[in-house]
Amino acid sequence: SNPLLPLPVLQAAHCQMIKDLSACLLGQNLRVDCRYENKTDNPLTYEFSITKDNRKHVIHSTISVSENIYRSRANVTMHKNLVCLYLQSFTTSDEGIYMCELKATNDYTGNQIKNITVIKDKLEKCAGFSLLIQNTSWLLLLLLSLPLLQAVDFVSL
């Protein structure tokens, strides 16, 4: 073997970076978008949590165990460069600091974490086609009608 070949350890330095964390209201539900830049093909694990009254509550996670009262109301969808949390029946008691934490398998540069303060009265309504993503049958209809919608910029999905 050639001793000059570089070992593939450099990849550890190129972890995924959380670029943006945003929240919006989708009907009665809260949606939290955690956008990231993917630097590796390794599987991504995530954790959404909320801190209120100085206590952290895990809402939905592949890293640790989430709390029942949240898990039953939450689901997460993963798309290219986007991890999306949906929390049903969002009320003022769900206000707090939401945290998105991402970790790529075999990535030793540590987890990526970003926070956002969510207050119901200050939330915008979710915009655009992206709300259709939440419902797969809508997405199917959307794909079937793609020829009609070529004017729409789908890169934003």
TrEMBL record:
Keywords: Cell membrane, Disulfide bond, Glycoprotein, GPI-anchor, Immunoglobulin domain, Lipoprotein, Membrane, Pyrrolidone carboxylic acid, Signal. SMART domains: IGv. The keyword ATP-binding does not apply. The gene is Thy1. It is a lipid-anchor; GPI-anchor. Its main location: membrane. GO terms for cellular component: dendrite; external side of plasma membrane; focal adhesion; membrane raft; myelin sheath. This is Thy-1 membrane glycoprotein. One of its GO terms (molecular function) is GTPase activator activity. It is found in: Cell membrane. InterPro entries: Ig-like_dom (IPR007110), Ig-like_dom_sf (IPR036179), Ig-like_fold (IPR013783), Ig_V-set (IPR013106), THY1 (IPR033292). It holds the Pfam family V-set. The keyword Signal applies. Residues 8-117 form the Ig-like domain. One of its GO terms (biological process) is positive regulation of focal adhesion assembly. May play a role in cell-cell or cell-ligand interactions during synaptogenesis and other events in the brain.
